[in-house]
Amino acid sequence: MRYTINKINKGEDELILNYKEKNPEVEAVLLFMDKRQRKLIGRKNDETIVFTPEEILYIEKVDNKTFVYTDDNEIQVEMSLYSIELFLDDESYFRCSKSMIINVNKVEMLKVCRRIGLMQHLSAVSISLFPVHTHRILGSF
Asked: How far is Cα 21 from Cα 122, in angstroms, rounded to an integer?
């Protein structure tokens, strides 16, 4: 497959894909293009918040409510963790426990303590520790 990349100075960014037949390379590019346009919707106080999967630090189920945490928001969504897991369908998101999904691209340090694993995310806003079942860590990384 041949690639052509052109930088433009004016106008809107555009991605064009020309192909004769769908093959695994074309499918991968189409999947990438489709994922970049996906959005999630949730509520914070009385506001509706629209965000992309890439903004997610982690997702947590607390008292039968699902919360998505980004760098600057705590957003309640009306989806189950299982539904979100299916929606994300990406190796960047890891179900580390029954009540939590993390974005592994945001993890800066991994520390295993005895039989309990801890994934630590350091952000400008907070320091968070995520309990992880050790067999899930060893099976995924």
From this structure: 44
